[in-house]
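Researcher: Next entry: ATP-binding protein/SpoIIE family protein phosphatase (Streptomyces doudnae).
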Amino acid sequence: MTATVSPRCEDVAWFRDGASLATTARGASAALARRLGLGAHRAAEVALAVTEAATNVQRHSVDGGLLLRVVRSGAEAGVEFLTVDSGPGMPDVRAALVDGASSAGSLGIGLGTVARLADHFDLHSVPGRGTVLSARFWPRAGDTAPGTALPGAGAADGVTRPISGETVCGDAWSVRTADGPEGARPPVVVMLCDGLGHGPLAARASRAAVEAFQACADLSPEGVLTAVDRALRGTRGGAVAVARLEPAAGRVLYCGVGNVSGFLTDADGRRALLSAPGIVGAQMRTLRTFEQPLPAGGALVMHSDGLTERWDPAALPGLLRHTPLVMAAQLLREAAVRRDDASVVVVKGAW
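Model: Predicted structure:
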């Protein structure tokens, strides 16, 4: 039997920095919260938090944005937002989270109140480079079924962003757990697909890859890629990589085709994982799986070629202490380009 290692997430919309960012994001978040059944009071809290965070982006960022997402766990659904900016950063994050500390021109509730309103909150900032903030909101008691346990951050999470001018992203990622030794942490299997090109046809290919991955019985990297290759025939095809992390064996198995980058990163730096040239669904060559030891206290990072490979973990101090979502978003901020779809997925804390 398999299960997900984090709530299911759906990226709804990116809102670019501009004069209307706070107003537009506030309205969209409130409408989404109501549609998902969070209740009027909880929807108002979501809108308030989004407005404060978006106003901070407006006032301080050089190139910022806000992502609105749906998160699902069983029958329950919640709202999550993420802000990403390349502004001056925060020299003292703790001070910024003290009640009453807020930017001039914002609502004045401060990021500390945003953190309290959220069921899960994380923030990472690097002075001189930028800031990433995430906040997740589940329904309050009375809006959920009795006894419902709603999760926080999982062991895997990621983010996608479409090329400038498009509303859909041609990249997609997905994660599952697999059967492992009894009493041990289960293996985690993650797949990332970069559909060729961009726009709806690329998105169609990446959705087909996710569906094939979720239905696949053989969760070895080569087994997944073989299933995805069959599913992508008749589509544009794509670049695909699959990693299987096995805590009991202390290893990661990695197999990739095309321009998807994989890295193991820890306090000492990063190690690249190899992919072969080709196109899944069209020109997939003989597959080869590579094995590497899992780094203690480290993370697996996979990203499409919408990010350059020039990011340096040493330039982002403290990043490994944060959630996979904030890690992924910080790497997106650091290395993504606007002229291509971009996606990053991170796994940590699974071993």
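Model: Note for the record: Residues 102 and 108 are 5 Å apart (CA to CA).
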